[in-house]
User: Fold these one by one.
Assistant:
Number 1:
Amino acid sequence: MKKLGLIMAGFAIIAMAACSSTKVTSSWRSNDAQQLQKDNKIMVMALVPQKDRTLRSQMENYTVSELRKKGYNAVSALQTYGPQEFGKMTEKQVVKQLQGSDVNQVMTIVMLDKGRERNFVPNYSPYGYYGFWPYYSMWSSRMYAPGYYTYNTKYQWEGNLYDLKSGQMLYSVQSQSFDPPTTERMAVLYAQQVVKDMAKHQLLAFSR
């Protein structure tokens, strides 16, 4: 029975790891959007609550890194302007400041939602096939044993790519992150998934 318990615990750990994920749920590209030119500057700008400044830095930096791997001139808004870059500025003033930094496109990354889910886990597992007595013994000992609650964190993200000169939205992507092990790991996976999706929509040129 002890060996059986270790096996069941292993299955539980694998299942929990599989549930942790970051993935694109939907995306859209404008019919008028042209493939981005590598000599253009793309500014990545994450919009998250002030208390999550570290997360903002991670989301911007890893997205910038992935775009640079593709050969694009991407920069972080936080590193360029600091945490209070636009404050009470008007739209005209913001656009003028960005254009003064030779920015051609702006990619916003917005945290739409962050919530915690509470799930009850019964003290048994339906997985596996055993002989009569191991099966009967397992269920008889666990059937009335108390279960426990787990708490998972779910993030909802939306990324939009804008052309600064025309003001046109070129691309939009929605994604979710479920129970990431760390915010840094979530930022890495987000950047990889979104840049991969941009390439899929042929917004990015093939790397040579």
Number 2:
Amino acid sequence: MENNRAKKMYDYHVWANQKVIQHLKQLPDRIYNETVNSVFSSISDVLIHLFATDITWLETMKGSSFHDTVKEVERRKSEASGASIEELEVFYDSLSKEFYSFFAEQKDLERVIITEHPQYGRCEFILADLIHHVVNHGTYHRGNVTAMLRQQGERGIPTDYVYFLFEC
């Protein structure tokens, strides 16, 4: 597979998640699990949600059934729930390797996949669009983390796409 924009966006997603995780590892341990009044009850809950959702979309891209996807997400979410930030980092790293392995097997990320959803019925997606969705979803929730850090008196870490480009 040639290098393309969808894969570059996923590279950004991995980079941004790593930035957030590295930042959190430098903060007091309580920050990661502390209850806050926000969209999620803790930063750890946000990161577990992001992890589980990334699994959902990878399984969808791979052609797994809705039932099998839900089962896989619940299994892996259960493994990651309660993990320390260091342990969650390992889960994230493993998942990104799965994404890259999937990408390497694809001849065309612009191809259409078809999936069935119990609520939405038959859905057609272009793989690259789903990759962009994964990245956008991650960006949204990394913003949640920044807001939650500020609520706890801590600073966030810049993860805008342009900072990724500065480092490339």
